[in-house]
Amino acid sequence: MxxxxxxxxxxxxxxxxxxxxxxxxxxxxxxxxxxxMLEALGMPYEKLTELGYHIPVxxxxxxxxxxxxxxxxxxxxxxxxxxxxxxxxVDYEMRCNKQILLTGHTLHAFVNSRGLPIKxxxxxxxxxxxxxxx
Amino acid sequence: MxxxxxxxxxxxxxxxxxxxxxxxxxxxxxxxxxxxMLEALGMPYEKLTELGYHIPVxxxxxxxxxxxxxxxxxxxxxxxxxxxxxxxxVDYEMRCNKQILLTGHTLHAFVNSRGLPIKxxxxxxxxxxxxxxx
Amino acid sequence: MxxxxxxxxxxxxxxxxxxxxxxxxxxxxxxxxxxxMLEALGMPYEKLTELGYHIPVxxxxxxxxxxxxxxxxxxxxxxxxxxxxxxxxVDYEMRCNKQILLTGHTLHAFVNSRGLPIKxxxxxxxxxxxxxxx
Amino acid sequence: MxxxxxxxxxxxxxxxxxxxxxxxxxxxxxxxxxxxMLEALGMPYEKLTELGYHIPVxxxxxxxxxxxxxxxxxxxxxxxxxxxxxxxxVDYEMRCNKQILLTGHTLHAFVNSRGLPIKxxxxxxxxxxxxxxx
Lengths: 134, 134, 134, 134
Hints:
homotetramer
């Protein structure tokens, strides 16, 4: 399993007229944690795009439990629990003041610059393999 | 069944460095169509909030097929297919140039100003009932 | 003088916890009107980028008079009042319910794909000249 | 003089199809630095709103020099250089890799919950006075 914890301080721009964080903004926080996880795996996003790889979101699923508010510091945990195949599933959990705010996941594939599915870079596969030993 | 079609012209602010619409922004478009659907049902969001009702998103699920680009005009279809109970499920389909971009759904509940679940307003129930005759 | 009027219906995502439109979002509306103005001048943004031109914002100035709220329909007027030279100045006025919400301007230059300043396309200059006859 | 330095790591959601940070997003970063400055002055925004104060943006002015890119870490400096009167002017400078990206300022006033101008809280005036001794 690979896991990454990121702290996000809620910005005013992220709130809406209900006084809480707008529901679409949690997806951008998932991405912040996901990208830090890639970096921790030795695969910073900038390097991947330089190599011609993209990792678009194929599917996103979010379950909203409690809203975050302006000024809150939210803990975003991203995890890869299943050994990635052609598709990579990343699971998320967000917490604030010891309460769960949100759970969810996103599904990804590696594509080339023309959007066609390709194998992930060998270096990435190798790096992940160390975390998913049979 | 209740159905609402809305057209959205992609704004530059909605794109990202991959040259396409950022994946979280589709959720905001779902909401635009959902709110127009409520209005068509005689229940504009402003009226609901004045009456003390809120309809937070409990769950969101999006399947991304093809990305929209700057300048595209995207057709967003929101539908209520199941007779709403305590929870309301809204299904979405987005299309551009006769191709499906995205399918998904959101799940909602009526809550009062303190965030506690309450029955939807009688007027809304009545308006919906006309669309879901047994 | 060139002038363009655009109507924007405030989306929920554009509001903040003060219950009004977040102040940075007006800049994106300015752009919507600016791009429609370019289109009306026979120079759609997509065409400009295809030709290798970009028109970055060099300067932005906004004076906030009254906030827009969710559900408001805002009239955004973009104008080119001065004959463009190397730089193009676009002035804005936003109105809602017969009241002025905002005035402002942005300053732009034509640059090539490497970000270097270049002359605007001949077609654009010609199209503008018709509006600024001496 | 009061000065506050904040570091912001560019998020993917903040980029646009030109491959750089969308110009409106710098305004949200100004706010992040401004709010941290208020906090350092003993006047966290949450406390101000609890006391019934709001500090809306009356005017914003940004000069764009160089764009930030995804993954950049941007230094945002917010400063109050003039002793605040009824209006408070905050100046900004953003830097990345030792180059200036942006300069600008915002103008603010204290208003009550009905949007009417009021005197800033005594505690805030006192805290500021220590930085602007005659």
